[in-house]
Design goal:
This protein is of the alpha/beta class. The chain has 2 domains: 151 residues, P-loop containing nucleotide triphosphate hydrolases (Rossmann fold), CATH 3.40.50; 67 residues, no CATH class. The chain is built from 7 helices and 10 strands. Strands 6-7-8-3-9-10 form a 6-stranded mixed β-sheet, with helices on both faces. Strands 2-1-4-5 form a 4-stranded antiparallel β-sheet, with helices on one face. Strand 1 and strand 2 form a beta hairpin. Helix 4 packs across helix 5 and helix 5 runs parallel beside helix 6. The longest helix is centred in the last third of the chain and has 16 residues. The chain starts with a strand and ends in a 7-residue tail after the last strand. The structure holds adenosine-5'-triphosphate (ATP). Adenosine-5'-triphosphate binds next to helix 1. The site of adenosine-5'-triphosphate has 12 residues, from helix 1. Part of the ABC transporter FtsEX involved in cellular division. Important for assembly or stability of the septal ring. Pfam families: ABC_tran. Belongs to the ABC transporter superfamily.
Length: 229
């Protein structure tokens, strides 16, 4: 039986009072890798923000990792976000501390106490993104691609049920984008569910997967044509 980690029914997404997307009917099952595409301003980020409760769901139904977005209370938001791993275009690492301290900070903020367990977890997520030896570096000592690997490692810390990646390759050159995509593919192969907003059609062609498109205030699934040989 498919196991939905995200399900929207007849939902509308708003920015303040302005309607961005309507009649949103979307389902993502455990283990899926799903792209979210669409022109600038078509609503991808607004949709993502609704998923991690940065925007409220005012109309329709939305369930994500066992939380009901319609009835979600302010106090529940940190618990929802603990079950999500969010990766942004601009990495959002804390620049005043090392990679290890960035990761430690998140573990501490999410209730981890045992020092040995924390170190083990940090080593494990850094290994998953190929950055095992970079724990003592500061973000400014890393390339953009390396910083994004650390941001992905940070997203993995609490074993999220869904990873939301909003333009994760948006600041990276094509070769580095492919390397980041390989990391995301590997994580997906190991069972993580990923929703990735992107403008990068080259990645879609190279790594075809279920694709949702935002256009004219709607979200719909697009069928990808096979790449021409
Ligand atoms: N903070 C905000 N307040 C009001 N309106 C906003 C806000 N952020 C975005 N919007 C509007 O919501 C609509 C959707 O924007 P959104 O950022 O979701 O699009 P997007 O597809 O993610 O675009 P991009 O690819 O440029 O990030 C646009 O019309 C935009 O002007």
């Amino acid at each position: 039986m498919p196991n939905p980690v995200l399900e929207f029914k007849d939902a509308s997404i708003f920015q303040g009072d302005s309607l961005v997307l309507s009649d949103v009917n979307v389902k993502i099952n455990k283990g899926d890798f799903v792209y979210l595409i669409g022109k600038t301003g078509s609503g991808k980020s607004s949709f993502m923000k609704t998923l991690y409760a940065d925007l409220p769901l005012k109309s329709g139904e939305g369930h994500i990792v066992d939380f009901d977005l319609k009835t979600l209370k302010e106090k529940d938001i940190p618990f929802l976000r603990r079950k999500l791993g969010v990766v942004f275009q601009d990495f959002k690492l804390l620049t005043d501390r090392t990679v290890n301290d960035n990761l430690h900070f998140v573990l501490k903020a999410t209730g981890w106490k045992d020092k040995a367990e924390m170190s083990k977890k940090i080593e494990s997520v850094l290994t998953k993104v190929g950055m095992k030896t970079s724990g003592f570096k500061f973000p400014h000592e890393l390339s953009g691609g390396e910083q994004q690997r650390i941001a992905i490692a940070r997203a993995l810390l609490n074993d999220p049920e869904l990873i939301l990646a909003d333009e994760p390759t948006g600041n990276l050159d094509p070769q580095t984008s492919v390397e980041i995509m390989e990391v995301l593919q590997e994580i997906n192969k190991n069972g993580n569910t990923i929703l990735m907003a992107t403008h990068d059609y080259a990645l879609l062609l190279k790594y075809p997967s279920k694709t949702l498109k935002c256009d004219e205030n709607q979200v719909f699934e697009v069928v990808q044509r096979k790449a021409q040989v």
